[in-house]
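Two entries, shown back to back:
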Amino acid sequence: TRNLVYEYISKPNSIIVPISPANVDIVNSESLKFAREVDPKGTRTIGVITKIDLMDRGTNSLDILTGRVYPLRLGFVGVINRSQEDTLASKPIAESLRGEAEFFSGHAVYRTVQQHCGTATLARVLNQLLLQHIRDHLPSIKTKINALISQTEHELASYGTAAGDGGMAKSSRLLKMLTVFANEFSSSIDGSAHEMSTAELCGGARLYYIFNDIFAAGLDSVNPTASLTNSDIRTAIRNSSGPRASLFVPEIAFQLLVKPQIKSLEPPAQRCVQLAYEELMKVGLSCGTNEMRRYPRLHARAMQVVSDLLRERVGPTAAYVASLIAIERAYINTNHPDFIGGPGAITDLQRKLDRKRRESARKVSRIAQRQKSVDGDAVIVGAEEIAEAVDPTEIDDAVDDVRSRSRINGTFDEPPRTASGTLRRPGSGSPLGSGPSGQGKFFNSFFGANGRRDVLHMGDEPRVNHSVIPVPNRLSHVSGDGTALDDEAAALSAQLSADLTVSEQRDEMETSLIRSLISSYFQIVRKSIQDLVPKAVMHLLVNEVCENMQNRLVEVLYKDDLIDSLLQEDPALVEERDQRAAMLDVYKQAFAIINEAM
């Protein structure tokens, strides 16, 4: 009950009439407490005091009626209700009102405030208060009704008007809706639609995101050499050579290895086509005005036409994208201007080898430092390490010193020299210290120039006792005949050279070269595919659908035998529209009455 009372008295347009008996303390009246909560200023509250004739002798409600006990802006009105006896005796109301008036006029206390007493006075005051209250709130009520009229008219317009009875009116309406649907689809792709979502990417913006973010990331995630092991590359090289030994890296092996890597670009490309197809389907679902949605059959058939058209175009688009990959695999253009080529790959590998050998030289130097003798004056260094760590002029001076000392002892054999007079390594045809890291020896072996491995102390060349060459200011502790120093240097050199033979170096060089060539050519194909696939999707799928949609809709749906069935409105929508029309008439009538009252 309390909630029901609050629901009515809390409305600002209502008038509150709290009723309290005169024979009860008015301060404890629940009705006055309710009124004070919702109307603290008392602008719409008028109090009523009942049972004045039942008060004890010597008491009266004069202070209450005059507002001295509980002040109200609109005051109190005292009344005398019909008793149970009057109700049972069926006493007329007019007679009861006369008896009430006689009571107040004949009472010694109440006749002084007779203008605040009686049911007739209460009716007159309430009528005046209601009229004034309505007059005060009429402008705001008029404004609200006017807003309701505008809102209802807008809702009614969104439902559209009923379809015309004539065949010409229906056909023209159908043609107009199909044209608007096709134009809205195209504008969503172009980004010129009137209503665009601000919560997510859609339409053409979504296609741009697919092409430049999703598709590009998918291509970048493909590593061309991740699935190729060194064993796979060596096997391909050997298979492409047949029964013959290869002098150079066969080009057939490169083509054999790079084609499967190009094939790995097809899944991201096909995924791009599929994402574009799905986005176009979403655009089609979002198209269609409210007028078109009034006809569920028409909207469903239009979406079916769009879906069929997209399926027709997505097949050729996917086939063309697959043909792009096949075209790239059909001919490996090693003359492409951006292709690194053999010389470029070798140069790049040379730089890597130089850097690797410099690091190895520093590592060998640290090992040699740890192998110092007890007195710390002698360091045993192999011939290979000296060639990389010592200046050639220092080596020549050291050899001359050894020659002069060996002649005295009678134990010196002339070390082999090249045609230019430079010192060469024992058992090798390459000059000692001729390159920063012995490149001449390696590339002669890599390209098959000598046809033999470069090892120390070949059997067909004289063996010399110069595995260890004294270095000025570096090797000072040498025995008279240099035997101990030679043995230790030979052992160290053999240990270091055993880590990586020339054959293993060649295999590593060939695999690194193939990997470099595959990566270079794969980058060229990746750029081409990243550029061509979005163009193919736009040309074969997006633009074709936008250009042919209106023609296809008209061709399939604009038929005389389908117009009546397609333009059947939803019964629920028709009922809703009729309700809105009835409400609009009511609002207009109320607005006219208020204008007359004002």
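entry 2 starts here
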Amino acid sequence: MNCAIKLQKYSYATSIRSTPKSPQCPTCGAAFQTENSGAPGYLNEQKWRQMNQANVVKGLPEIEGTSESGSTEIPGLVNAKARKVSSNNANMLSDEEYKSIVSNIDDPELQAVFSGEKISGFVDPNDMQTGEPKVYSESEQGAKIDSFDTLLAARVRRRAEQGRDRIICQRCYSLKHYSRVDRPWKEDVVSDPRVLRFLQHKPSVMIVVVCDLFDIPGSLIPHLGDIIGARHPVVLVANKADLLPKDYHEQRLLMWFKRFAKSLELNIQAIHLVSALKNLGVRELAADLTTRRRPGQNIYMVGRANVGKSELINALLRISIGGSAHKVLASHVPGTTMGLSGIPLRRFVKALVPSSGAQSHDRQAYLYDTPGVFSNKSIISYLTNEELKLAVCRKRMKPFSFILGLDQSLMLGGLGRIDLVEGPSRIFVTIYSTIRPHFTRIKRADDLIQRMQAGEKTILQPPVGDAERLKWFPRQELALEHEFEGLHKQHATIDVVFAGIGWVAINGLFPRAKIQVFSPFGTGVCVRPPMMPYEFKQVSPHMSSQRKTPS
């Protein structure tokens, strides 16, 4: 299978609708369906029937589907007449056969019970008191059943209001409990930013643009203002601050980040650095949104895939009263959110609405989670579900600094490579990535790539898998050549960014150096001003997974 699968493109007409016509999965926003078991929104027959049963309780119409039985009866809510067994059932005894069997019972009391001599109705054990049990007539039986139906319906409504017993699709269940999907994740992603054009026609909304601090500028959508409209007020959120080293300088990072925000061409009102996973800066963000949002105004979360929009919504729910029961699905797999998923603002009590509850003008307001727009330039687009776990950073980084000599290569698995082809005898590199680096001579690096392309296992990971997977893995091609001057011994001069997997800061004092950077198909690489120029660490010794390639 060719790993360079062409990413599926969605248009506005087929992907995002502001008012969905079919029921949606509450965690990913995909429309429920029963036809394709591997696609988002799939429900088996039992879950489809259960969803319709819940709709009956809520007073909603049933949804047509492919359920074979077609039955949506809820035990305890059916009419008493429906519980009677049909008299024309072929397996039932005739009256003569029944009387013959009853007449052969030895116990006279049991014989009287089955013959109907002592019981003219049914006995409720809850109403038994001293003396004779109370016997109900048929009308009284119906009244008790109706009362039970009312109580059960109220219980189901209450549990639905509390977010319990939510029905989720099979894909969300696999991601939630097993952290995997049953088919290649690239088949479900949205890669065309024009799916967000519907926001241009919204009269009054607040936009929260979320990006990933670990992937700047790759997690920013260029010219986003032309797509969603430049008039909407925007709050820009840089997420995943918990992945950065502990000693990063927040104010310096904020000033550095504002340079890239200008390229979005948006009406930016505020910028926040947060960690949705660790709840860092989330309360400050919630307070700012509450202050800036006008009465009745909806909020839309917008951004690239895998930047943490869903996790940010969950963080806001965690600081709300009773909001945790309504969380959406967040996963390391890109493209987890498949449709426009709305949560009423009244679920965000204390976070986005007052503790006393939502006001009348906010009772119809929503916070919407939109599908992440995947970047075709991201290097992780060539990875399988298993390889994503190796490449995507999910815990705090510990940057290491190494020496890169002239005519040597720094390799980040099969995903990235930096060659020092001209310049000083050595430079210093600080690596911000979860992929173990490998240092070798340039000729040896070429040999490793050729062996990997031939299907031979090497020290380079990712990729991982059998020989067929290694053969189909995209070949590294020259992405850019860059000449620069080293400005300080221990301060970074430039960052070489590999979109989606991290970056390498280059340090040193020298008049001129020339590097060549390689990546799969030569995509997903850029050079930027250093994000953390003063985080240079002492040179680390080579570890076993970073050993020199033997001659």
